[in-house]
Amino acid sequence: NRYLTVKHHIHGLPSRLDFELRSAPLTLTIPPGSEDVIVKNLFVSIDPYQINRMKVHNSSQKTADFARQLHPGQRIDSFGVGRVVASGNAEFKKDELVVGLLGWEEYTAVRPGTMLTKIDSNMDFPLSYHVSILGSSGLTAYAGFYEVCDPKEGEKVFVSAACGSVGHLVGQFAKQSGCYVVGCAGSKKKEKLGFDDAFNYKEETDLRSALKRYFPDGIDIYFDNVGAEMLEAAVANMNAFGRVALCGAISQYTDAGKQAAPDMLDIIYKRITIRGFLAYDHLSIYHDFVSATSDHIRHGRMQSLEDVSHGLESVPSAFAGLFRGDNVGKKLVQLADI
Ligand code: NDP
After folding, report:
1. Is residue 298 part of a domain?
2. The Enoyl reductase (ER) domain covers which part of the protein (predicted)?
């Protein structure tokens, strides 16, 4: 079984040279009494949060289970979809398709109690959708937008990293809810996806005045994927009782010196709500999310933008590319034919 690992803890921007491919023997025979399920991985998700697991951690840092620190030599778990090739667990049968916490490796032995769900064989969507629009990225966008931002028709919504995995879905949910949506991204090649407007933040010298130009009447909702100066500029342009969903802070992940310092008095006087969230805490709305989103897809109201590379060897450069803005939509790596 070939798997990827980090050679050392990573400081700053990741490069494909920070990773190495190793292999370990794999047996497809499940020992009696074991409830393990062995999955052949088909698509794996490439996510920015993994960089935070690859750094040296401060011992007081608290993280969710899936975001635990990784050490050199360790296999790297990650969301993915795959096919069961052996099972000691009555719930999962050989050849069934599953989604869950798999890994940047060819096969994953999934222990009982680890996140693993069967894919409903009546779902006629491409398999990759279960890690993108109908998977963790979709749930993040849906839960963050509906549960944290509490949108109302006609409100003005700003989304950063708007052509990324989560961002392009947030913008589409916001359009479905009758909001006015502006996104920002770091390149001209990233399309608008039916948003009302979009801009390239790398071409702006002053983010506050750029946002004033796009939102002359102020922002009601900011869905933040990047943190730092974009968060400060958005807060400066928020309307009274505006809501900010802190989804991620990618611009800070690879630059330890970068922090967001929005104007506190501005937040108080405008009674702005700023709330961090994890998709993971919103699993109770998973079925509502899948049902509403499937319906949007079937009726052509939403689309999943995916950026797929092929082969385990391509995972390190796909991952490093997230921090250069190479991906257009959800970054996935297909490891094997379906
Ligand atoms: P994306 O697909 O959006 O990929 C990352 C994108 O971020 C890049 O394409 C790039 O686009 C942008 N980016 C990279 N570096 C910078 C920078 N220095 N400044 C500004 N933008 C930058 O990733 P995801 O959609 O998977 O994740 C988006 C955010 O959501 C991340 O911060 C992630 O950690 C967070 N997240 C949070 C979850 C939660 O439960 N709270 C769950 C999943 C993700 P460009 O520069 O072209 O705009």
Report:
1. no
2. 12-333
